[in-house]
Design a protein that fits this description.
Elements lengths: L12 H14 L5 H12 L6 H15 L6 H11 L4 H10 L16 E2 L3 E9 L3 E8 L10 E7 L7 H14 L8 E6 L5 E6 L12 H13 L2 E2 L8 E3 L5 E3 L6 E2 L2 H22 L3 H12 L3 H9 L7 H25 L6 H12 L2 E6 L5 E8 L12 E8 L2 E9 L20
Helix pairs in contact: 1-3, 2-3, 3-4, 3-5, 4-5, 5-6, 7-8, 7-10, 8-9, 9-10
Length: 428
């Protein structure tokens, strides 16, 4: 039996990760479940100590592979049993068998990365990664250069590079076609570095409201694929030269639940307002689109903005108008079938009597159609004694109520038979 795990004064994430790695060597032969129970109470929330949680996941994965299971199979089994560390198990499986530290520590303009990608320029640096445009020195040429986008995930960034890289890679591979950059390659090492290579496409951010409809329709497609972007802003909204749209920087992507969709919708509403102000668009165009985005009605907002440039968005408007017209037509047919105008004259007369509040009973003839109705005057009130009640027999003739019999106090719901197959005889 191993002594209890003692983290001592290791309160920092990196120190705790080192202690877990050393403890894993002392606990060789333990089952993964035992190791998780040993370390997880000290780690707490994996998001707060990402390096320690990944170190624990790597040790548990190594223990889970002792029976000869492949890394992916062992990681999936552990992720199912312990969902709190699911991302760490899958990230650890990504690094199994890789060499330690074969990637450059950073990407620098002019250098060749991994013997193939020559960095042309750095276009962005964030808390988790550095992004650069590169030329494929292996397949490209000066006449027809093949450009790509390299995203280098930093090992010392918040969280772990493999975790961030795997999340973004998995998201890109599940998105609808042409909604995001195409994945070309992925490189990682056990030292914590990772490089994601995607295709580069000439594009530009939206500059006026006429650019937004295609982007709004693209976000709708992404949400339909159960993915929320999580960081929508003008620099991440891209338009190709043919007018189509796509989104970049998926590091904050998540499942498109209600919160994720609302966050994307709120950011798009801010983009609509900002572009409306810079372009000087009238408020009667900007405000409805902004409110529709805020309510999550991205399709309606896109259609509203597309009406301002119908030639540019004619294809989309037509594709939206056809199903809308069909839906309106079907609704009209159903309404005509079940609406009040589909009633027979007798049914319409019954509806009018019922609306007055003094209809007592409807009597149907042999053929099942309404033959007449008993009507209390002025209104049916059970509190009024039967002898003081005036009851009329109303016969329907072409939708017109014809008073055929008046019987004060002689008829009441309590004394009438349960069903009257035919109308009572008329009194002279």
């Amino acid at each position: 039996m191993f002594p209890p795990f003692q983290p001592g004064s290791a309160i920092h994430d990196a120190d705790l990760a080192l202690l877990i790695e050393r403890d894993a060597q002392d606990c060789r032969g333990s089952e993964p479940d035992q190791l998780i129970k040993r370390w997880l109470p000290v780690i707490g929330a994996p998001a707060d100590r990402p390096m320690a949680s990944l170190a624990a996941a790597e040790a548990c994965l190594e223990a889970g592979m002792r029976d000869g299971s492949p890394p992916l199979e062992a990681a999936q089994r552990l992720a199912t049993a312990h969902p709190m560390l699911a991302e760490d198990f899958m990230a650890a499986a990504l690094g199994v068998g890789l060499p330690d530290g074969d990637l450059e520590g950073t990407i620098v303009e002019g250098e060749v990365v991994l013997g193939r990608w020559r960095i042309d320029r750095i276009v962005g640096r964030g808390s988790t990664a550095t992004v650069g445009i590169a030329t494929d020195a292996l397949l490209g040429s000066e006449i027809g250069p093949t450009r790509v986008v390299l995203k280098r995930f930093e090992a010392d960034a918040s969280g772990h590079a493999l975790r961030h890289a795997r999340r973004e890679l998995a998201t890109l591979l599940t998105l609808p076609d042409r909604c995001a950059p195409k994945v070309l390659g992925f490189h990682a090492d056990r030292a914590g570095g990772a490089i994601l290579v995607t295709a580069w496409e000439p594009s530009s951010p939206p500059r006026h409201l006429g650019d937004l409809p295609e982007l709004l329709w693209t976000v709708r497609r992404v949400h339909a694929a159960n993915v929320a972007h999580g960081d929508l802003k003008p620099d991440h909204l891209r338009l190709r030269s043919d007018g189509s749209a796509f989104l970049i920087d998926w590091g904050s992507a998540s499942v498109a639940d209600q919160a994720g969709r609302s966050a994307d919708a709120d950011r798009l509403a801010s983009v609509v307002r900002a572009l409306g102000q810079t372009s000087g668009a009238p408020s009667w165009i900007v405000e409805p689109a902004r409110r529709l985005c805020g309510f999550g009605c991205l399709g309606l907002a896109a259609a509203w903005l597309a009406l301002g440039a119908p030639r540019r968005h004619a294809r989309r408007l037509v594709s939206t108008a056809v199903p809308t017209a069909l839906a309106i037509l079907m609704t009209a047919v159903i309404a005509w079938t079940v609406g009040p105008w589909s009633r027979t004259p007798a049914e319409a007369a019954i509806a009018r009597l019922r609306a007055r509040g003094n209809l007592v009973e409807v009597v149907h003839g042999v053929d099942g159609s309404p033959a007449g109705a008993w009507l209390a005057w002025p209104r049916f009130d059970p509190a009024v004694p039967a002898r003081e009640r005036l009851v009329f027999w109303i016969e329907f003739k072409d939708g017109i109520e014809v008073i055929s019999r008046k019987s004060p106090g002689s008829l009441s719901p309590a004394t009438w038979p349960e069903s009257l197959p035919t109308a009572p005889d008329r009194t002279p």
